[in-house]
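Database export, one record per block. Field names are fixed; values are copied verbatim from the stored entry.
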Amino acid sequence: MKYEIIDTKKSDLSKILSLNQKAMPAVSFMDEKSLYYFYSVSEYFKLIKCENKNKIYGFLIGLTDNLNYKSENYLWFSKRYSSFMYVDRIVIHEKSIGLGFGTMLYNDLIDYSKGKFKNIICEYNIKPMNSISKKFHEKFGFKRVGSQKTEEGTKEVLMMEYSL
């Protein structure tokens, strides 16, 4: 099978929302309003599909600096960085984890971001521990640049940076 990475279309949003909710708590909750916000402001909002099929295997939302976005983690990075691509979330369908789709999306994001931004930045949960994300980001060469407690101390995230 041949897979393709394509720009997200409005007609994909309901499937993306469903995929996101199934991936919780590894990613944050997202409602229709926040999904449409991402759709309107994202520099990078792509998904991976199998050619000639309508199934979405994963998606990645990338935001740039200087947005009016109130996420605790985005604000942490905004205070410390300029010229960045922030991975708000990457979600891979639960039955497709480990098949290389996350790697394909990140490689595409890196290619897209080179020459435009200094860094790709992101975070992953360490409370509760997201060991899949930990292993994935270490493999890519992301470096730890900090941590913070979020959601009134119920979560803790590790802040990561990939220099372009």
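Remark 1: The mean pLDDT is 93.
Remark 2: Residues 65 and 84 are 6 Å apart (CA to CA).
End of record.
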